[in-house]
């Protein structure tokens, strides 16, 4: 985790292991870290749940609180086919097929705070026989492997939010049967039935008969105005849902909510919040190498992605009390840069205090070399010792990062996941 947070470009197992191994006889071998990703007995799904529990605890989520689960997918380009799941897949950024992986991703949101949750690799059907798993569509991965395992605090309510590509009557019904709600975009040719009738019509045809009114919402600090109309309809195998039609100057979009009590404005706000997952894709890649993994196995890649998500969350909650700073200065990028800066400042102060002021230049230079090695992140990370199922720093270096490491190890039951 320390290497992920501090790394700039080396997100290979080799690069990360060098970032957390002391340059002495106690250093772990590269094979230990390969085993941690490839063969160790731990589950990325279990870690994701522990991660979610930590988030819920930090945000004090309880009975009556609303939790959003945004689901999407993203493309990770690869130059060769040695990596599991690599195929020619559609890259929406370039608008064409390219060689790479498709990752089904998700993020949790409570209020205005959002963090990544769980990612799974999509394996194309023609490659599925290479794995000991049945082929699953992206929609099946989203529901069965991401939404279903998530456990909420007692009394909290979950709404799953996704785009029209993930819609399916059976998937929506499954989520409803688990006691959750769905908000999603609908394709214009989806057939719905006005209540108490047996015939169906396209949703865009129905929307053309409705009365619209102007509605304004504020999301991510920006006000947006739409002409909206809504109607409660029936969808076979799903039941009653609320349909919302939203017009801007040149576009009409259609959305669905299984919560009939939500207003059109509330539903549009949830739809707009879905864009937070795009920020997760962008910033987790830029800051933690989300798509720059150089692992080959599907399980190893999914485990790596889960550690990236946990690193994001730890940095997001670091110095959480300093609300004014973050409101003024921005999000994850600023937080991470500030975190690195804080570590470097504390390290320099510690080194300055340790160097003998009256020693000669040669002796001071030697002391500096030794102290730089001692107070590197590698050494700092390894200076934590286990005490009563927690980690206590063996020196007073950098209270900021001492707190950050405590956050990692305070997640209950997580200690056994890390290589000894």
Automatic annotation (TrEMBL):
Ranges where the Transposase IS701-like DDE domain occurs: 3-196
Keywords on record: Plasmid
Q: Which SUPFAM superfamilies match?
A: Ribonuclease H-like
State the source organism's domain of life: Archaea
* Pfam families with a match to the protein in the record: DDE_5 (PF13546)
Q: What PANTHER family does its record include?
A: TRANSPOSASE (PTHR33627:SF1)
The protein's name: Transposase
């Amino acid at each position: 985790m320390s290497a992920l947070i501090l790394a700039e470009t080396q997100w290979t197992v080799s690069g990360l292991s060098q970032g957390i191994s002391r340059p002495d006889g106690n250093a772990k071998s590269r094979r230990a870290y390969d085993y941690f990703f490839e063969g160790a007995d731990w589950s990325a799904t279990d870690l994701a749940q522990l991660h979610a529990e930590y988030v819920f605890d930090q945000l004090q989520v309880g009975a009556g609180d609303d939790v959003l689960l945004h689901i999407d997918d993203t493309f990770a380009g690869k130059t060769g086919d040695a990596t599991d799941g690599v195929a020619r897949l559609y890259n929406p950024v370039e608008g064409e097929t390219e060689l790479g992986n498709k990752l089904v991703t998700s993020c949790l949101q409570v209020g205005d705070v959002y963090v990544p949750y769980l990612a799974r690799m999509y394996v194309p059907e023609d490659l599925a026989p290479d794995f000991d798993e049945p082929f699953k569509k992206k929609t099946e991965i989203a529901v069965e492997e991401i939404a279903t395992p998530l456990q909420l605090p007692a009394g909290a309510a979950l709404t799953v939010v996704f785009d029209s590509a993930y819609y399916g009557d059976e998937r929506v019904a499954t989520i409803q049967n688990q006691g959750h709600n769905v908000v999603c975009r609908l394709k214009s040719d989806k057939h719905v039935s006005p209540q108490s009738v047996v015939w169906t019509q396209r949703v865009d045809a129905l929307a053309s008969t409705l009365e619209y009114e102007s509605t304004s919402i504020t999301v991510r600090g920006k006000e947006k105005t739409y002409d909206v109309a809504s109607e409660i309809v029936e969808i076979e195998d799903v039941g009653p849902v609320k349909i919302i039609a939203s017009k801007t100057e040149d576009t009409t979009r259609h959305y669905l909510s299984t919560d009939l009590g939500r207003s059109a404005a509330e539903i549009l706000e949830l739809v707009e919040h879905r864009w937070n997952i795009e920020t997760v894709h962008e910033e987790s890649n830029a800051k933690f190498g989300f798509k720059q993994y150089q692992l080959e196995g599907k399980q190893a890649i999914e485990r790596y992605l889960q550690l990236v998500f946990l690193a994001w969350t730890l940095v997001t909650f670091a110095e959480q009390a300093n609300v004014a700073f973050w409101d003024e200065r921005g999000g994850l990028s600023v937080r991470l840069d500030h975190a690195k800066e804080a570590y470097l400042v504390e390290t320099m102060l510690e080194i300055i205090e340790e160097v003998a002021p009256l020693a000669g230049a040669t002796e001071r230079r030697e002391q500096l070399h030794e102290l730089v090695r001692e107070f590197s992140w590698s050494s700092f990370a390894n200076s934590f010792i286990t005490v009563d199922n927690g980690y206590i720093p063996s020196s007073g270096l950098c209270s900021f990062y001492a707190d950050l490491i405590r956050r990692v190890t305070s997640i209950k039951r997580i200690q056994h996941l890390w290589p000894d």
